[in-house]
Amino acid sequence: MSKKLFITGASGFLGWHVFRHAPKDWRLVGCWYGNAAGLFPNAEALQLDLTDRDAVWRALKTTKPDAVLHLAAASNPAQCEANKEETRRLNVEATAHLAEFCAELRSKLVFTSSSQVYDGTNTPCRELPDPKPQNGYGQQKLEAEKLVANVLPSAAIIRVAVMYGMAGPGTNNFLQQWLDAWQQGREVTAFFDEIRSFMSGASAAEGLFKVLEKGAEGTFNLGGANAISRFEFAELASAAFGLPQAKIIRKSQQDVPLAAFRPADLTMDLTKIKDLGFEPITAWDGLRRLAEQQF
């Protein structure tokens, strides 16, 4: 008998990959709000406003999921700085309600937080209970983490690194944007002083299902096997996709006015997630696999 997984943010980049890479012993039911085009083909999904507490309760009570995978978020740091109250309703309040409902229904909750909860000054980043986020998005994610842990100690909180890859026509990712630009002869700008544990969407989905499979509790980092700069990642991407003439402008964060603070170094310690059996891959391996699949 298959287990039932309710997925918020089903029409987003990670939601698409979760549906694509789901093990066969899970039945997936997703929800989306304003982006039906981003759903994986033939996905079982319903339209739902996660800020509508009563509607969410009705959906969960009807679905009766064994587990809830909470992916939905207002994840643009600039948007969180400009619209703090609006984004907090989704990033914090809706997350707290989901935790309460999962406790009531005895459903497992896996909540995707962000590496943005770290300030980027003490690496490798470990799953400390009280990191010091320096932008509004990271602060909202940390607030949500604490509410989830308080309401539902059995929940798993996953601090996700920067993801890359290709997905459906209604999703967006910086790698897709870069490839489009290069193929059209345009340049991209990449920071040499912004270090990230880049992770493919496929690898992220694998990690989330590993957490579900193990019934893991607590906080985990989830990222790629090596940490490199955005500029180095751009060089690897152009090589993996056979674009030697790709135009890459190497810049520092200080060269560009940023709408929100971006931590300098978010190298992640992956010891805990590897102890569950997750095997992270390098950025080069992830990019090469994508290029070989030709999508």
CATH class of the largest domain: Alpha Beta
Order of helices and strands: EHEEHEHHEHEEHEEEHEEHEEHH
CATH architecture of the largest domain: 3-Layer(aba) Sandwich
The CATH fourth-level homologous superfamily of the largest domain: NAD(P)-binding Rossmann-like Domain
Total number of beta strands? 14
Distance between the termini: 33 Å
Oligomer: single chain
Work out the helicity level: 25-40%
Q: What's the CATH topology name of the largest domain?
A: Rossmann fold
Number of H/I helices: 10
What structural class should be given to the helix and strand makeup? Answer: alpha/beta
- How would you sum up the major sheet? 7 strands, parallel
Gross geometry:
globular
What fraction of the residues are assigned to beta strands by DSSP? 15-25%
Domain module count: 2
Radius of gyration: 18 Å
Strand order of the largest sheet: 3-2-1-4-5-6-11
Describe this structure in words.
The protein has 295 residues and is an alpha/beta fold. It folds into two domains: 3-163 and 198-222, NAD(P)-binding Rossmann-like Domain (Rossmann fold, 3-Layer(aba) Sandwich); 173-197 and 227-269 and 283-289, UDP-galactose 4-epimerase, domain 1. It has helices at 13-20, 53-63, 77-82, 84-105, 136-151, 174-183, 201-214, 230-240, 271-275, 283-293; strands at residues 3-8, 26-32, 45-47, 67-70, 108-114, 156-160, 163-164, 187-191, 195-196, 199-200, 218-222, 228-229, 247-251, 265-266. β5 (108-114), α5 (136-151) and β6 (156-160) form a beta-alpha-beta unit. It is globular and about 55 Å long.
